[in-house]
# Entry
Amino acid sequence: MSGSTGRPLGRRTFVLGSAAAAGTAALTGPLAATASAAGFGWSDDGSDYVVDTGAGLVFKVSKTNGDLTSLVYKGTQYQGYGGKNSHVESGLGTSTVTIAQSGSTILVSVAYGTLKHYYAARSGENNVYLWTNKADSSVTATRYIVRVKAGLFLNDEPDSYTYAPTVIESADVFEKSDGQTRAKHYSRLRVTDYDYIGWTTGGVGLWIVRSNHEKASGGPFYRSLLRHQSADGGGLYEILYYGENQTEAERYGLQGPYVIAFTDGGAPSSSLYPGTLTTPWADSLGISGYVAAGGRGRVAGVGISGRDTAYPYTVGLANSAAQYWGPARSSDGYFSIAGVLPGTYTLTVFKGELAVYTGSVSVSAGSTTTLNTLAIPSSNDPSNASAIWRINNWDGTPGGFKNADLMTYMHPSDVRAASWTGNVVVGSGTETSAFPCYLWKDVNSGIVVYFRLTAAQAAAARTLRIGVTTAYANGRPQVVVNDTWTSAVPSPPTQPSTRSLTVGSYRGNNHTFTYSVPASAWLTDTSAYNTLKIYVASGSGTTSYLSAGTAIDAIDLLA
# Structure
């Protein structure tokens, strides 16, 4: 994606970053390969450890609780708003905090019960390297938030609510006077889409460069909070487990490094990106749970056959302890995933975001596991099934449906969204773009799809399929054909229990509902339109956009 989206407010802009963006951005603040900058060192002011990188960045860490209490770059204080510091979760409480210097590295270690957190500085770099080792659930979530003073970086973008005075949902979704919506949830981005997050004034950039998320949950397509702006100030996040719209259990262990990086306005150096960053200087620092590069392995695949080349493919590795992923090459499906902890993993191939292949692979330290060509069985891709008609194609996302391109960065009530109601005619050429990406019990349940059948098609029972990507409050589709045949209410599949459709995420657990429609349900007049009414069934949810709902992947009637 591009390095900048949206319109600047005055001369200040924000950037959501990717490796592609950095290819054209002015890169500043790279890793210093050598040695001591003037002023590098640390001191104790009584309440905080004060670390000077010798390159314009001075930060303080509380000796009491491990909070980052000061973040001064070139004489300007960036840290803090509302009397709050930067810290793990909402602050750890009384902790054991120590500091040590090893050559050109200073490490601050924070121990809070079973949780350990680390800050590292390197001589001559305007970066703070962070690791968090969460051993169990004694701390609620795994999050680090950098709190930034108000007025230093301004924006009026989807993840800002500075200019949105009206609360429309759960005290964290807001509406502006022009009908546009704002919320800290509306980042647009999946984890796989970005390497860094932050802001720039043009003269100063402040960023968090994410970690590889090996101890996070949710896989490559998970969305979570990345940053926010409000009247109080801004926040930048590294979130590994948030408890919202999660599809996997929490993973424990050391995660990092992730990096707070200052630049002179450009993107952070690509040498800090996950998959690029190497930290041999940290190998001997005694960081709890740290595994050096030599203790990791790699998985490489010769290729993937049976792909639909119109779609990107991603290969994921996951077990209860770690997760990794990488893109498959568009020409042949070759993939390589490095830096993998030893163990046995479930390997999943995704077409778009739809799992179409699963297997198992074992990884050993210091070696590469090479896999022969993976063959996706034809039956694993529902798009390969012969259909009388199909609305959208199967890729595990609602992409292509009405409003689908908007829902990762605005509320469904946003003035920019097209009407959620309206019926659909198969064969019109607009059946996909006219069909809403989301259905709710209290908003557009009962949408009608019109279609014709030939005499031969109407003479037999048919299978109707509806694919969904997630659901809220157990919403699931029940169908009525020609007002004469009604399906049973299907059992709800396992889905996240928290909000999803209204906070920028359609990602849950892909599921296909199938309905066996008897021949007696079809019209025998081939010139007449059959009707398919799709209702949302559920006894849960509240009203409007928080009524039971579901996100649609594809709908088809099999031949």
